[in-house]
ABC transporter ATP-binding protein (Paenibacillus agri), 571 residues
Amino acid sequence: MIRRFASYYRPYRKLFIIDFSCAVGAGLLELAFPVAVNKFIDDLLPGQDWPLILIACVALLAIYALNTVMQYIVTYWGHMLGINIETDMRKKMFDHIQKLSFRFFDNNKTGHLIGRITNDLNDIGEMAHHGPEDIFIAVMTLVGAFILMADINLKLAIITFVIVPIMAWVIIYFGRNMTTTYRQLFGNVGNFNARIEDNVGGIRVVQSFANEDHEKELFAVDNQMFRRTKLLAYKIMAKSLSVTYMMTRLITVLVMISGAWFFIQGELAIGEFVAFILLSNVFFRPIEKINAVIESYPKGIAGFRRYLEIIDTEPEISDKPDAVDVNALRGDIAFQNVTFGYDQQRPVLKGISLNVKAGETVAFVGPSGAGKTTICSLLPRFYDVTGGAITVDGIDIRDLKLTSLRKQIGIVQQDVFLFSGTIRENIAYGKLDAQLPEIWEAARRAHLEELIQNLPEGMETVIGERGVKLSGGQKQRLAIARMFLKNPPILILDEATSALDTETEAAIQQSLSELSVGRTTLVIAHRLTTIKNADRIIVVNEDGIAEQGRHDELVNAGGIYSRLHQVQFNA
Ligand code: ADP
Ligand code: MG
């Protein structure tokens, strides 16, 4: 783990070296100060040589000035190093999440992912900046102070040194507890992020059920969990603070007594005694810093571990090394004995075989849960087939580059996902570099032109989060406009009009028919009126494809479809 962490320093080698040298320099000056005091009192004062004393003071001032510059560099450049690393990690995590597959998102809550990218990485920068230099300086200070103290009086130095093993134990013991606690705390933050995400995202449902009290209780539980874990962290901090404080004071008293004894024995001069006490303070400084260390590094470590969990999640679906880029697919689709299940135990598709010619419109009907949406999700490789194969233009879709496959498939679903932005931005999502005239053309073909023209802000109207300021029909039209812009050879319409009233549906149906001209189209619909004109209708049930043919053929065949037809038209 340390090596992986260290690899993030690579782009900032220079920054690291400068910051590290300054930190070490400042640490050395701290060490030199008590020695200077010793010399000042024992050597310079008795001589009563004013010019020499003044020179010493000017030298001291120069050293302080140098230290100021180094402190500035450590504080600003050092933190720059930290924040650069933190930013890199955030970017890497976000980029990686873009690659992860549907199944990952099926199983992970949005709130948790947001927590990992934001909260959990917050302290990484601090750790990246202070970590290496603090450890180095602590060791350097301890060793340096010990040597200088031993130089004054070895026995006294050994007495002081007793604190080191005790403190090493404190760091390891409390540090471990703290890391575990912070891991838990980050989980808690994830939980309430997820809770807030669910609640605010679904606030309209919450309020329409008048279930606010229920939601408050759920949130209160997560909030209390957070409080409890955070308290645990403070408790660990308080304990380690107390142990450290008590130990250092105990040693100080021990040094006073032994120092006094050695002084009386004539083994220690006054200046040496003062210098020793000053040095022991320098010696204790890294030890007293342990508390900050025990707070912030476990946070960083816990966050880094949670970061690695995401980075180490391999995308389930990705490009083969020799995947090919095909920029203009015709749109011949074949399912060859395709089997698939979201989990091993429960197969959803058990051997689907199907050929769709380029430009053909094929409709799927069948009971809810039969696997119609699943069939359509396999084509853009949202999930990979468990058995058999799917080909487009005779090429196994697993041999195609994912982007080249997905750029050529357009999907319009029942619930359209719109981004919180303007109408223009949402239409242009179909083609990011689209120019305004193209966007208007797409809007016109989706029969949105008039609506947009009547809005005071036109194309620049903000449609609210997920398009709440639009009606169902308008959202669907926006999704269609997006498709006109994207202009894919293959189109999937999954219950695109099912949520709409009959009148709106009929109007939108018109746009969809225009959209599907010249494209291979897979339509899923439960209202048979919308698919009557399909080139072929496929009836799917739990066992797979039950019937297929044209509308009239199926009605006359007297099977499932004809019964469905009777229910919908003669009821
Ligand atoms: P249809 O579109 O025909 O109504 P689906 O293809 O959506 O049916 O679903 C087929 C079966 O797969 C259902 O039993 C459903 O519960 C299950 N299913 C659908 N999506 C998922 C998913 N993301 N994870 C696990 N199971 C799923
Ligand atoms: Mg479905």
